[in-house]
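> example.struct
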């Protein structure tokens, strides 16, 4: 009898520099959502990461390079969370669950780890092309994920419906956070939920 020998290749453990690099990006991804691109400085990020300012250039050639990775990480985190929400709900309720989670009070209050599009969308036109490119790629992923939850996914008009849903929930969150009237803020969120994710009767 011939026994097949299978070699399992395990990924190499991350080196200390890679771990540190990832940590800086993670801190920066939170910082840009909390303080905006222009309000996020290298010194502040390195301090929050527990590192010296001088060590920054061992990891990134420029502040812009860090912002590119931070925008990508923030977008990836949002898409991953959406995927988890969709996967944990019955298929026919996945989109409703995603919309309700996006328009929830928890997401409203958690700018630092929430969707970067609603936190940073108005700043994007003024960012470097590479930063915008990274953010755009993740926005497309979010739209595609929404589209896959639609009952008529793949049919004419489904992509347009996904675009409309994404634009509505992001715009709603921007407006809800922009106003200083709690009742108006809640009204924005509630009306969008009722329109795009109504409770089952």
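> example.seq
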């Amino acid at each position: 009898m011939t026994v097949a020998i299978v070699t399992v290749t395990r990924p190499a453990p991350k080196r200390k520099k890679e771990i540190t690099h990832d940590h800086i990006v993670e801190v920066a991804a939170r910082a840009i959502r909390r303080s905006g691109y222009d309000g996020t400085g290298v010194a502040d990020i390195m301090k929050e990461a527990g590192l010296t300012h001088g060590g920054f250039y061992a990891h990134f050639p420029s502040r812009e390079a860090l912002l590119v990775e931070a925008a990508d990480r923030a977008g990836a985190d949002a898409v991953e969370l959406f995927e988890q929400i969709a996967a944990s709900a019955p298929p026919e309720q996945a989109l409703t669950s995603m919309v309700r989670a996006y328009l929830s009070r928890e997401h409203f209050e958690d700018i630092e780890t929430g969707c970067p599009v609603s936190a940073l969308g108005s700043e994007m036109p003024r960012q470097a092309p590479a930063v915008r490119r990274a953010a755009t790629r993740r926005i497309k992923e979010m739209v595609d994920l929404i589209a896959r939850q639609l009952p008529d996914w793949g049919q004419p008009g489904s992509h347009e419906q996904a675009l409309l849903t994404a634009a509505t929930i992001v715009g709603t969150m921007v407006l809800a956070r922009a106003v200083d009237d709690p009742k108006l803020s809640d009204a924005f969120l509630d009306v969008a939920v009722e329109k795009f994710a109504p409770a089952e009767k």
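> remarks
The chain has a mean pLDDT of 91.
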